[in-house]
């Protein structure tokens, strides 16, 4: 018994020593282990495929033959924005969450453009490569604009459309982000590692609690990708994609979700989508910012589940 006790104490001491070493010597390894754990808890695994000159990293989970949910992240974001939301669906849907070309861990090619029309073509190449049947498509922010654009080009592939705080229309009332953009400032990008709290306050109404080690990791990644994100912003500006006059052509059942405290794309934009989409339902979430699926994943998932029930006629 005493030998067993010594053995267990030794294991605990080893675990503490390993954690301490990682914390000080390789903090990124520790954070990445946490990210992997959260993906696993959500029933998701990481895969990679090469399409349209890009290596696309994506998360997937759920029964192989189940209905497909394809989720698209926003500008300067990545696939992990959807993990906590996706956890509510991976038991009965086939979930797919790519890092869009130019973002996250997917390829960034300086000689190519990342305007919306080009991204629609790459998304179709991804869909073709995976031989997807018709699917439910949802996107946040820029990912919402891309989802709507894809629905216009490939209406036969999309069973339903989910738009969460979507870009793509003219805001009736300008958000703080839009006012800064009009002045020539892109406040979605970090200026330094100390700038993360400002960005979180912009994106969330209630920023998530995050240990400093994780904040440092997120800031480091954002700063590494800043130059390319600026290039993508230039691509989107040079070849703008405007949905205002096209929404009436989308006859796919659509759900519009918006956080009432969005400081990136003003909540007044929700009414543009509501009035423009022929078959839409709109939900305004109180006390919520630009990323409802990340800030309030369970509540957002409940709204989306109800929408899917009305579309499919089943749970």
TrEMBL record:
Residue ranges occupied by any AB hydrolase-1 domain in the UniProt entry: 67-297
GO CC field: membrane
A Pfam family cross-referenced in the UniProt record is Abhydrolase_1
GO MF assignments? catalytic activity
Xref: PANTHER family: HYDROLASE, PUTATIVE (AFU_ORTHOLOGUE AFUA_2G14860)-RELATED (PTHR43798:SF33), MONOACYLGLYCEROL LIPASE (PTHR43798)
Q: What is this protein called?
A: Pimeloyl-ACP methyl ester carboxylesterase
Organism the protein comes from: Pseudoteredinibacter isoporae
